[in-house]
Amino acid sequence: MIFAIPYQNERIAGHFTKAEEFIFTDQNTSERRANPALKGEGCRGKKSLLALLKSQHTDIVLIRNIGEKMLTKLLNANIRVFRTSGKESFETIKLSSLTELTDPSQGRPCKNKKQSGCSKKKTSSMPVTKLNTPQLIRKFTIFGVK
Fold first, then answer.
1. Model-level pTM?
2. How far is the C-alpha of 28 from the C-alpha of 16, rounded, in Å?
3. How many C-beta atoms surround the C-beta of residue 130 within 10 A?
């Protein structure tokens, strides 16, 4: 089972798509990857982030805050989403004690109600930046996984 954790300032990032990087971990290894949502323009970056999560075969995402639209995309991709306060240590998180988000309405509402989403926006011709080679980092153990 592969977990994706938005990571910033040595803890779980406050907002999913604005994290500096993501940690991908299973019970044995962990690696960090740059967040492509920070390099792309708006929706293009978020689409790149979703593509990264899928390419890493992510099963579960741990978040503190997430928007309705991104939550919808994760749920549609069959990625389970669990909310944490961010105060828990990676070494002691118990999945069974976290809240699973199962409905898009559990995410933050879009601030710009006039915007109809990524599918209606024009995309720029900016090339997608390739990510750096992942770096192996210390191992994380997430208890309570079944």
1. 0.74
2. 24
3. 8
User: Within the chain, what is the greatest distance between any pair of CA atoms?
Assistant: 45
Joined together, the tokens standing for residue 19 give 């994290």
State the Cα–Cα distance between residues 40 and 35, nearest whole angstrom.
10
Strand, helix or coil for residue 141? coil
Q: How many CA atoms lie within 13 A of 131 on its CB side?
A: 20
Over the stretch 8-43, which tens digit does the pLDDT of each residue have? 888 888 888 899 999 999 878 889 999 998 876 667
pLDDT digits (tens, 9 = 90+) for 93-130: 777 788 899 999 998 887 765 555 554 444 333 333 33
Amino acid at position 34, single letter: A
| C-alpha to C-alpha distance for 83 and 77, rounded to whole angstroms | 17
